[in-house]
Amino acid sequence: MPLLRSAGQDVRVLSRTPHESRPGVEHVTADLSTGAGVGAAVTGVDTILHLAGSNKGDGEKTRTLVEAASAAGSPHLVYISVVGADRVPVTSGVDRAAFGYIAEKRAAELVVERSGLPWTTLRATQFHDLVLTLVQALSKLPVAPSFSGYRIQPVEAAEVADRLVELALADPAGLVPDLGGPRVYEVRDLLRTYLAAAGRRRPILSIRQPGAAARALREGAGTAPNRAVGHRTWEEFLADRVGARVAPASGR
Q1: Domain limits of the chain?
Q2: pLDDT tens digits for 8-28?
Q3: For residue 123, what are the β-bridge partners?
Q4: What's the pTM value of the predicted model, to 2 decimals?
Q5: What's the N-to-C CA distance of the chain in angstroms?
Q6: Which own/partner pairs from 7-15 qualify as long-range (CB within 8 Å, at least 24 positions apart)?
Q7: Across-strand partners of 186?
Q8: Which class is 2-241 in CATH?
Q9: 3-state secondary structure of 188
Q10: How do residues 177-190 score in pLDDT, each as one tens digit?
């Protein structure tokens, strides 16, 4: 939002809970799950930044947004997705329980592509903050489990925001090149560096998850090493958020 305001843009924010508006930033209450208020929220806008995401129902929520946007005109729809949305097969119940978020992102991508609206989709790798939440949860256990072989390429959320604003201010471009962080790691290395930064000691137990989605992630389907254009490393992020510098984890 500050980036859009600094670019001279008026901003309208859609959320399910009321917030107070201020000059240049209008807050409207609407719900993509039910459609309530969505039509009014998108009326009169030139560009929609679709940033919502969850483990269930993203395709239908995106369809609700698209229908309202189409009725309101032909705004540029900019969508944030995840790297690997088209490469991680989420077919079984086991896969959906663990990786439903990826499947929902792909479902929403297809709705955007087929919407008839001018559109742009950016796929990004995993945000530093999401990875931090994951390793913090794993490290709370007496023995920290690690998903064996999973490759993760953490990226700074602010860098993704910069790119989204750039795309929102540009012409519709369809599916644009991925945005990945500067290095690819295995989960074990991310967990080890977090434990070192936090001053904790935990044995790490590698667990090999079954299923086609897990196999794809072990093969790097969720990474974009040829698009390692992010600058802030995982270790730099940890130093700021946890308060201790650590030696770089082994990465690619």
Answers
A1: 2-241
A2: 888 999 998 888 888 889 999
A3: 81
A4: 0.93
A5: 33
A6: 7/165, 7/169, 9/169, 12/41, 12/45, 14/38, 14/41, 14/42
A7: 151
A8: alpha beta
A9: helix
A10: 999 999 999 999 99
